[in-house]
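Discussion board: Methods & Data

I've been asked by a reviewer to show the raw model output for two of the constructs in my manuscript, not just the figures. I'm not sure how much to include, so I'm pasting the format here to get opinions. Each protein appears as its amino acid sequence followed by a line of discrete structure tokens. Is this the kind of thing reviewers expect to see in a supplement, or should I convert it first? Here is construct A:
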Amino acid sequence: MGMGDYSPGSIWYYAPNKVAPIIFIVLFFISGCVHAWQTIKHKSWRTTILLPWAAALMIAGFTIREVGAYNTSNLTYLIASTVLIMSGPPVYALINYFILSRVLYYIPYLAPMHPGRVATTFVGLDAVCEILIGQGAWRMANSDLTEKERQIGAHLVTASLCLQAALFGSFGLLAAQFHRRANKENLLSKDLRIVLYVLYVSATIVTIRCIYRLVEYIEGWDSTVYKNEVFFWIFEAVIMFLNTLLLNFYHPGKRLPRSNSIFLDRDGVTERRGPGWADDRPWIVTVFDPFDIWGLVTGRDKKTQFWDMSDDELARLRAEAKANKRSFVAAFLDPFHLWGRRGYIGKHLTKKPLSGNERAIPSVAEVKTEENTKSGQDVKDLV
């Protein structure tokens, strides 16, 4: 029976292929294991820890699809496999956001936006995509629902795919802007070029897959694309395996620093350790103003620019950052840092002076002023 032939009693319309899922289960399993091994080897937890998880979602989806191939009248298998397989690609996109964020941390003075905001902004919007997919895919695949209810599901999935396409476009423009700046300053090493090119290819692959799904759901489940399984295997399974293969061959953990505090000096050669580029704005403000436009207007953002400081000044800031670091329990109980003497809300409820260990990390301007004052005093004493 051909991949587009109707199979009586099958809620898939066709009789699902029984061999292809096994092949991709094996391929994604091997790929996921390699991802995990490389993440451990290069200690790139914050950048690539989700790669094995993305592979696991695809494996779970193909496994249920294989079971469904032998139970073509069981709606549960169709819904579960659809939701799981559609959840994998957004996670791969999420990984790309983390990778670009790490690149921007490495050359912070050329970053179009705060590196931490790259992760939180795109991750937050990506989470919206996942919610829309989860709510829409099962409705769309559930043939027991009314036509109107299934159409609502299709609209939710379509909205998610449109949002994903917009995210990928914005992500590509952001990466390209940084790439242009770094090229102009001649600061791109071979490893950084490879990482950026891999990001472009990976984002393109995920976008192609997104367009395929978008066409599928816009045309509906009576379309040629939906009723021919071959489209699924090419534009979902094969293309996403090529993406995971790409990230295995050119693993970003091998080419990027392990810590966000490591940055490249303006000479393009020396690597230095800073305090990390913190953003002390309230979380809700960063959501609505990820580019910190207000900081650019008021000049406040210049106070956080540590990359032109001396090694002694950086050492002092690192010590202050370490002293002010919250415990794991405090971060877990108050993830948005609302309470406490330095919390966004708590600091307005107390007038007690901060203790030595609770002092805020001084800005670059404060450090410079203090250093200049000290130098002036030393000169005065000598005279």
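Construct B, same format:
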Amino acid sequence: MNVERWLMRQEAQWLELEQLLNRAETKGIGALSAADICRLSQLYRLVSADLARAKTRRLGSHLVNYLQGLTLRSYSQVYQGRQPEDWRKVLWFFQRGFPDVVQQTWPQTAVAVGVFMVALAMGWWYTWADRQFMELVVPPNIISLVEDQGKLWMGSIVGIEPLASSSIMTNNISVAVATLAGGIFGGLGTLYILWTNGIHIGAIAAFVAQNDLSYPFWAFVSPHGALELPAIFLAGAAGLLLGQGLLFPRRYRRFSALKRNGTLAAQLMFGVVPLLVIAGIIEGFWSPSPLIPNSLKYLSGLGLFLALLFYLAWPLERSPTRGRE
């Protein structure tokens, strides 16, 4: 197959489909004529076949991601009449749509994880090397409690679990939304939030290690952190998508790139919020409980993390858009 000739021949159909989808998504499917709807369905099948061909021929991740985006958007328009109930759309999203978009945007998530981990390592290193840095980053009340009384601060949650849980949820969701919104500044705001959070957690982890409290500290963190940290990384990916759309539109016009990436970012956030709600419940009720052995907290954290990885890494072929390629 002559790839360049094939791309030139098919690109006109992809652009036609993209134009129809933009109209349907902006004004509703009812704004299309019967002929347009038939044409959209026809182009959806053609693009699905093109996606399968692009994967088989290994024509590059950029092209595959572009065609995946078109097929997913087309599927939601062509088959929305078969799922009139809102709850079915929500169920479909969490069964297939969310893992799909996470896998499409893994490069942005990898960047978010990398920035956070580098910052965490620096926070850890400088806390061990420089007490002034530690006092600058770690809150004074935590320093006093750990050094003067030799205990962690999580005990303050016990007895006020419902209030603490709702407060934790609100705070974490606010951080995730701010991380997303930081993408409007070319991704710099997103990177700043990831960096500062990494520095903060690294410094606290080093500080409790200096005072021989690492085991109970990580026992507290692991159950809710197994969901909370990945959720923040995904929010970081959403913010970086916005920044990428603004600064690096590639083959798209800037507005089209921002709209496309904004759709992916919104889908990521639809999945991030429930993760943070669940993490907030765990952090309020399970993580600080003195009745639960630390070993069980570690096991629960590991189990949740592996379950989340399995869910998000489920093969893309399970998506209905791929079942018809």
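Answer (T.O., handling editor elsewhere):
This is acceptable in a supplement if you add a one-line summary per construct. For B, something like: The longest helix spans residues 214-247.
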